[in-house]
Design brief:
CATH architecture of the largest domain: Beta Barrel
CATH class of the largest domain: Mainly Beta
Number of strands: 18
Number of helices: 2
Shape: elongated
């Protein structure tokens, strides 16, 4: 089971840089509007298949998920620096993260057209292109008062057999396939984060079930968004894995 904790709340303290164009779609950088973006190109190239790179802009800073690790961007006395967690991953994903971490601080201005955002340097040349993630209409209250049974997941190492998830106003609990667990979570709009998950007992006599539970806790700990569609609950992780639950009668 992996446990990763990260708080991104870095503040920007750099002066305004003039954009080389007065076009209406040119915006100042850094952007302080509250929005979430998903990268479509890094350095003009598409992303490594199966990876997902995000950027969250907000009044207090910029941060997100770079395909394997979480990052934040903050200034020092000399230049902008990306700070990143240090999980290991495949070499091609690591190379992509390095390119992303190198290009992001080189941004001088940005062009926003509809739901697309392109970061540019002084030349101007394209650094990174994004598409905006649209929030769903799901309400946190829809999570409550039900037992949710896992029906499928894109994380192949998690078996959906007998997995149950329940929410109260301030806690979560369930059954992982071998053991019961308790947890805590935070939710705002359709952002959902499990802040702790603990099994009620130490031993699980079935190794396959234990390994599935370990991967289930990883999936839950990396959950980023939720959506309720009728009797279906869909959880999405930072990396783009999904878990589909059905409401139990």
């Amino acid at each position: 089971m992996r446990a990763v904790m990260l708080t991104v709340g870095f503040l920007w303290s750099i002066g305004c840089r003039p954009a080389p164009s007065a076009r209406n779609d040119t915006i100042s950088w850094p952007d302080t509007s509250d929005a979430e973006w998903v990268a479509t190109r890094i350095g003009g190239s598409p992303l490594v298949p199966g990876t997902r790179v995000t950027m969250r802009t907000a009044p207090n800073g910029i941060g997100g998920y770079s395909g394997c690790n979480w990052y934040g961007l903050k200034p020092d006395s000399a230049r902008m620096q990306v700070e990143m967690t240090a999980r290991g991953c495949r070499s091609d994903i690591q190379d992509q993260e390095r390119r992303f971490a190198l290009l992001l601080p080189q941004t001088v201005f940005a062009v926003r057209r509809g739901d697309t955002l392109v970061l540019l340097d002084r030349v101007p040349s394209e650094l990174i292109a994004f598409v905006q993630r649209q929030r769903t209409a799901s309400n946190p209250a829809q999570l409550l008062g039900a037992s949710w049974r896992l029906s499928s997941t894109t994380m192949k190492t998690v078996s959906p057999d007998s997995v149950i998830l329940r929410f109260t106003a301030d806690s979560a609990s369930g059954f992982g396939g071998c053991r019961a667990f308790d947890g805590t979570y935070t939710v705002r709009d359709d952002d959902l984060r499990f802040t702790s998950i603990a099994m009620r007992t130490l031993d699980c006599p079935r190794e396959r079930a234990r390994l599935s539970e370990e991967n289930l806790t990883t999936l839950l700990s990396e959950t980023h968004h939720f959506e309720v569609r009728g009797d279906t609950l869909l959880l999405t992780t930072f990396g783009g894995d999904t878990a589909r639950f059905r409401r139990q009668q």
